[in-house]
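Quick one, tokens below:
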């Protein structure tokens, strides 16, 4: 049985005081755990402050990226060990905004992924097609390329902590959500692909989140699909009430 996981990607929003206020608000709204794993991913500079607020709660902390080298003359970069030292447990890797604006490729996703695993961070690896690719009938080709390219040389053991986020780029921040049938179709495709790449047990144990304009109103329907194991939430995670409502609507 896969435990559902809802992660909030705060992107480049919220300064330190705002981040603390948001997670304090989330704590209040959520109350007792409801069996869903909850993760918040603030900008790097707020990880340490947010870690203090979530300590001892059921809210886990994640970062939005890391660099693959362990240390050195890499101005502006943050290593996996540095992320881990803040108290973070998860790290988002290969978000479409990084692929689109910062030259992220499957090869660099793979390097970050291995660096994350090496320090014991749980990677949330993002994959998904853009609008032109969907309209051109290339969705499955693109998703297959992202998955096979990003997970090169990973062992079944390493797959145990890895989460995949299927995020159709045309649905991110646009208000356009994939229908539950569209999302389920791709999630099933990913799970079948994992059977071929690893084995049945690994595929059945791997959690696959959906991301793309998830809101309180559409969360329950999406999360009820057999191969959707949670959500990666952008916009709606920036308000405690809407993020909490998504979590509460997840069964
Ligand atoms: C995201 O950034 O991963 C995302 C899914 O954003 P939004 O929920 O705003 O579409």
């Amino acid at each position: 049985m896969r435990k559902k996981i809802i992660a909030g990607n705060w992107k480049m929003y919220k300064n330190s005081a705002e981040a603390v206020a948001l997670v304090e608000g989330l704590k209040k709204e959520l109350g007792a755990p409801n069996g869903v794993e909850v993760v918040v991913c603030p900008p790097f500079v707020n990880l340490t402050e947010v870690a203090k607020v979530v300590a001892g709660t059921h809210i886990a902390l994640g970062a939005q990226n890391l660099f693959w080298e362990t240390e050195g003359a890499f101005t502006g970069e943050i290593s996996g060990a540095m992320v881990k030292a803040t108290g973070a447990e998860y790290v988002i890797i290969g978000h479409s905004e990084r692929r689109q604006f910062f030259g992220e490729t499957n090869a660099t996703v793979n390097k970050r992924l291995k660096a994350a695993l090496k320090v014991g961070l749980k990677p949330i690896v993002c994959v998904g097609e853009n609008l032109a690719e969907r309209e051109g009938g290339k969705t499955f080709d693109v998703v297959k390329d992202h998955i096979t390219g990003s997970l090169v040389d990973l062992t079944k053991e390493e797959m145990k902590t890895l989460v995949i986020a299927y995020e159709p780029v045309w649905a991110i921040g646009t208000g356009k959500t994939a229908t539950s049938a569209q999302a389920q179709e791709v999630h099933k495709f990913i799970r079948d692909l994992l059977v071929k790449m690893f084995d049945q047990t690994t595929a059945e144990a791997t959690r696959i989140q959906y991301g793309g304009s998830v809101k309180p109103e559409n969360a329950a329907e999406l999360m009820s699909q057999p191969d959707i194991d949670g959500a990666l939430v952008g916009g709606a995670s920036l308000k405690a009430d809407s993020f909490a409502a998504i979590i509460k609507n997840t069964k």
